[in-house]
Amino acid sequence: MPVTVLIVDVRSERSAALEQALLSAGFEVALRVDEREDLHALVELHQPDAVIIDADLPSRDTLEHLGQLGRRYPKPMIMLASEDAPDLVREAAGAGVSAYVVDHVMPAMVRTMVEVAITSFEAHRALKGELNRTQTTLVQRRSVDRAKALVMESRGLGEDAAYQYLRKTAMNRRLALHELADEMLKATRRTEGGRSGAGSSAGSGRH
């Protein structure tokens, strides 16, 4: 299935040549649009596989729009520009641009340019997903460790016995271990909050 590309058209004469080069390379061009149009709606409607922004010198507004677009509809984005400005390159990367290409793009380079941008985007997304999963796992482990400490204290059990108690309870209730741990920690916080509130009320009543 051909890769579909949406061109954000800032320089119409160069964008027309870019569109022809993409078509010749076997891509489909969903649309050439002006940067002032509603990019969110157009990307949602056409669902392109990649977005190419053809601009001599991308403005702050353009980069801001791309950042919003990337957060809402993550896509490989390629910026074609005429200046190699380090600040703009950093801002473009921060806006979610996968590739920042300076100067004229030869037709023979178009396929490689798009494929490299898509590969880079997919690798970054996979890495981000793995990082999120790792962070989630760490949070879950901390919850289980805190719940285990509660069981050790309340039931006078050793670490291994407390862990086995949690596992058995979770299995009996058909919960994941971290879900049971979260429930226990929430219940403990509610109990402690109730005691704190009762203590405050008693203290205020003595005055």
Automatic annotation (TrEMBL):
Cited InterPro entries: ANTAR, CheY-like_superfamily, Sig_transdc_resp-reg_antiterm, Sig_transdc_resp-reg_receiver, WH-like_DNA-bd_sf
SUPFAM superfamilies: CheY-like (SSF52172)
Listed GO biological process terms: phosphorelay signal transduction system
Region Disordered, residue ranges: 187-207
Record bears the keyword Isomerase: no
Lineage: superkingdom: Bacteria
Molecular function terms from GO: RNA binding
Key words of the record: Phosphoprotein
Residue ranges occupied by any Response regulatory domain in the UniProt entry: 4-118
Residues recorded as bearing 4-aspartylphosphate in the entry: D54
Record flagged with keyword Ion transport: no
Biased composition (Gly residues): 194-207
Chain ranges of the ANTAR domain: 124-185
Pfam (any one): ANTAR
Record-given protein name: ANTAR domain-containing protein
Annotated organism of origin: Cobetia crustatorum
